[in-house]
Amino acid sequence: MTSSSSASFSSDSAAPASAELLELARSIAIDAAELVARRRADGVTVAATKSSLEDVVTFADRESEDFIRARLAEARPEDGFLGEESEATPGSSGITWVVDPIDGTVNYLYDIPAYAVSIAAVTGSTDPAEWTALAGVVVNPVLGEVFSASAGGGAFLDSPRAAHRRLAVNEDVALAQALVGTGFSYSAEVRVKQGQVVTGLVGKVRDIRRAGSAALDLCSVALGRLDAYAERGLNPWDHAAGALICREAGARVGGFGDAKESGVMTLAAAPALAAELEPLVRELHRNADLPL
Ligand code: IPD
Q: Both 26 and 88 in a single domain?
């Protein structure tokens, strides 16, 4: 994994091209992923718990976010910041960076090699229902996989086995043949209801996967390692970069009905499969008494 040389920007920082934002995000995400991997090798310690005892933050999460935040502030001081582990700050440029310093923190804690640094640049709003994602990068340091996309520029994977491979979702997969990724809440009460949704789904699809990183799940759909992904309860930083990567690979990414992806639902698949899966997942959520 090599980071590209540091990008330089014109003085017109209020309207940067998506490609410039992507170059910056990519360079910082690769460096942050290397930091995260080094800290994993040293041994990981839980710094605190958040929404529940299962919802942990490690010292490496905080260090990674501080590192990313400082690098972004240095390169683009006028931009806003929305990250998982620190206070959000508005900017004046119209661009906000949406950052998950380690997505898949529980995998990271257990040394399961499915965690990632996720960085996206969005514009228009800090609300996923209203923002437009311009650039996104997701880096799995263990596999050396760098997923990236810019708006209108396509989605790509760079890894030791793939040099800038263009990504495309699996097309023409019937619901009954679909391998579907999902995830569960840190709240035990919600997890039980999500279990009911999975019970209703598992007999209607090929199988279910729960890999433990929403950002990587979305990239897996973009790459064709999964046919579809559906999860309730994501935070904006979990899906900001992955959703753009998935869309640029040809997926329909959204929530229930015409809604955009959100904490209520993030569902991604090739459009024909999404059209079959979405009403089923919605019905299962209704039956499990999960708000729509
Ligand atoms: C979590 C992961 C997990 C998903 C959870 C997320 P975190 O993010 O993406 O796969 O099921 O909903 O909260 O806490 O590891 O950054």
A: yes
φ, ψ of residue 21 to 5 degrees: the values are -65, -40
The answer to whether residues 48 and 180 belong to one domain is no
Tokens of 266: 């993030």
Q: What is the DSSP string of 32-94?
A: HHHHHHHHHHH---EEEE-SSTT-EEEHHHHHHHHHHHHHHHHH-TTSEEEESSS--B--SSS
Separation of CA 186 and ligand 1 centre (Å):
8
What is the pLDDT, as a whole number, of residue 102?
97
Which residue of 213, 226, 261, 267 sits with most ligand 1 atoms within 8 Å of its CB, as the best mutation to test the pocket? 213
| Domain around 257 | 175-287
54 alpha carbon – ligand 1 mean position (Å): 11
Read off the pTM: 0.94
Atom number, ligand 1, closest to the C-alpha of residue 115? 15
Centre of ligand 1 to C-alpha 199, Å, is 21
Q: Is the Cα torsion angle 215, 111, 53, 199 positive or negative in sign?
A: positive
Distance CA 127, CA 143 (A): 31
Q: Which residues of the chain have pLDDT under 70?
A: 1-16
